[in-house]
Design brief:
Layout: E1 5-6, H1 18-38, H2 41-49, H3 62-76, H4 80-99, H5 108-124, H6 131-135, E2 137-138
Parallel strand pairs: 1-2
Length: about 140
């Protein structure tokens, strides 16, 4: 069975307005990637301030790309579950290592909201008005 063939309609119980949230989450990830691309010192300082993250400094160039690609995939609704699933460890790490340590400049409520929405989209998928829904082919059984 192919990746786009399914034996049931996965988005049938998803409200149609949920695509607005998916697009907002996608654009916020794209905006965060743009911020990281323009000011790479933000990530560098966050990794250096944390003793645990300093050993994983090789992730610094990858994080903006993962946010950018994941945000684009969420906006168009292609491979939505995979894109959301990849964002979960990044958002969890942002909350745990950055937002809880530096509460003066942290955007903890926004990061937590994005984390919750990314977890939701990893379960429900793209819903209506997504490329996942367009390319989904029901499995024909005879």
């Amino acid at each position: 069975m192919g990746l786009l063939h399914q034996s049931y309609q996965t988005g049938e119980n998803v409200p149609k307005w949920i695509f607005i949230l998916r697009i907002v989450v996608g654009f916020s990830l794209i905006l965060k990637a743009y911020t990281f691309f323009n000011n790479n010192d933000i990530l560098q300082n966050a990794f250096n301030a944390s003793g645990f993250l300093s050993a994983t400094a090789w992730l610094i160039p990858l994080i903006p790309w993962v946010n950018l690609i994941g945000g684009i995939l969420l906006v168009v609704g292609l491979f939505t579950r995979l894109a959301a699933l990849v964002q979960i460890p990044l958002m969890f790490g942002a909350i745990l290592f950055v937002n809880l340590k530096d509460t003066a400049t942290a955007d903890l409520p926004f990061s937590f909201l994005i984390l919750v929405l990314v977890v939701v989209f990893s379960f429900i998928g793209g819903g209506y008005f997504s490329l996942d829904d367009t390319y989904r082919k029901p499995l024909v059984t005879e």
